[in-house]
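#onboarding

Welcome to the new folks! Below is a worked example of what a typical request in this channel looks like: someone posts a single protein sequence, and someone else replies with the predicted structure as tokens. Don't worry about understanding the tokens yet, we'll cover that in week two.

Example request:
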Amino acid sequence: LHSNSDKGDGSVRYILSGEGAGTIFIIDEVTGDIHATKSLDRERKTHYVLHAQALDRNTEEALEPKSEFIIKVQDINDNAPKFPDGPFVATVPEMSEVGTSVLQVTATDADDPTYGNSARIVYSILQGQPYFSVDPKTGIIRTALANMDREAREHYTVVIQAKDMAGQVGGLSGSTTINITLTDVNDNPPKFPQKNYQLYVPESAQVGKPVGKIKANDEDLGINADIKYSIINSEGANMFSISTDRDTREGIISLKKALNYERKKTYTLHIEGVNTHMDPRFSYLGAFKDTATLKITVGDVDEAPVFSMDYYIMDVYENAPSGTEVGAVTARDPDSRNSPVRYFLDSKEEGERYFRIDESSGVVRTTQPLDREDMPWHNITVMASEVDNPSLLSHVPVTIQILDVNDNPPEIATDEEVIVCESSRPGQVIQTVTAVDKDDFANGQRFSFALPSQLPVNPNFTLKDNEDSTASIIARRRRFNHLTQELYELPIVVWDGGEPSLSGTSTLTLRVCPCQRHGRIRMCQGEAFLSSAGLSTGALIAILLCIVILLAIVVLFITLRRSKKEPLIISEEDIRENVVTYDDEGGGEEDTEAFDIIALRNPAAAEELKFRRDVRPEARQHCGPPPSRRSLSVELDEVDVHEFIKQRLVEADMDTSVPPYDSLQTYAYEGQGSPTGSISPLDSPGTQSEQDYNYLDDWGPEFQKLAELYGEAESEVTT
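Example response:
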């Protein structure tokens, strides 16, 4: 720094302030030269802002105002390129074309890109040739070799170098690693390890169960290795099926039909395996499938007997005698030896009670007469086994139908009573009846009806056959009376249409009942009960009246018992602390059994008469002229009610005859001094008031009832 005021005599002093002043930068106070005390790093700070000033050394006055200047740090190539995200992992499909992009890597350089070539980076490949290449400017990695096969080599390691100074000598460099994996494509068809296979399957193999497996190999992975197996020849496809196990990619061979060694001993299967996901880019390689031949040999197994039919249906008439032939079953040994067969019934079924089978011929016979109405169908199981090998069993279901014969007489369908209205007219249909028969008729049940011929003509009812398996009961006379005769019996004979025809007699009960219009029953069951008991209407009224009187007496008795005051002492043994609460409103003037408050209103008399509070006080007779209202008021004024209550408390504590538990005695003192007086008779117990209550009639209708009550009371006193 230099000031125009500096004459070179040392009278000017230079000072420096700002960023790094005194630490990084110092100034010679005399000459104004600025020096750096340490090395500078442009990557940490690119410039510094400083302030300089010239002062008079003697007076310390500023010769010039402060001047600002900036020191810029010039860059040099002291930072090597770096890959901040490395190492890298990348994938590329196998068999990719040359130049297929794999990954782009980018290196950074901390040097100044605007100054020189310090930050100019060039990329090169150090490892991974000749399979991959890198663009020197962009850093894009590409495939450099065609037809790279994953099945031959799957993983590659590529090292990329980034060098600054545009790759010139003396430039700094950095490197990173890229792990490249070839992904699979479907470029390999499935192949069977061998062209011919053999398999042994016994003829007893179950249908639908696996009998063997076969597998074709595919070098691809994932869905590119999925294989679908199929049987392409009809001989094998008719007897066998094949499916693919997704986990193992094996072809599972199953049996579609039962094998029979005696019919066919060998089968040839042409099996084809095809990839399910094709890549059209590799169609030039040919069909992605392979075939193999499987020869299946059927093994001979001793088999159980085979019945001629899958099931049998037989029939026999009911009531047939024991030993009647029902039918026959036939079974044979399917093996070449043709061993004789033995028949028997399954002992676990109930059909063994009704049937038996000849063990040699297979003829089924009855063991007892059968009843179709009891069980119309029987299901039995016939079992067959070879005589040489009894352990091999076969079963066949046999259904036996029991044919019907006419062995049950018909009967009337209903057992309910027939209601006959009292107002029935001659010729009126009382009811239509039908019949039922347990037997079965192929052309429908047909019944005929009639009254018994051996009985005299019924004067009350007759029967009409409607010739449609129904009959109508018709009244023969006018008006019935249930009081005269309530029940009638009507026997009816019914014939069925079977061969031979059977008949049965049923007796219907007809009940006479009063009916309303249109034949509606008014009352039947109640009157029938009374009539059967022989009770008349008057007797019924008398019985009902007696019942009402008894009920009234019971209610009155219960009411009196409830109104009676319960004693405080319930039992001598029930000794415990109780609080007895009386919460009743009372019965007014007519209630003579409520709490006796005379003692409270007349303390002097109560002092003379000490009676138990837990029992009902006896009625007292008053002698002499009744005290006047004035005298009672004087007595109440002279007696302190509080003192009276204290005396009662002392008596209750000292009296040994009182209950041994706490007794709550409540006294209510209304007070005195009402100018209108009191109309209650409590102030003068046992006496009659001399007051004239005729003025109550003048008070209006609201007090009419009260005036009548006191008027009646005065009339009674006068009488």
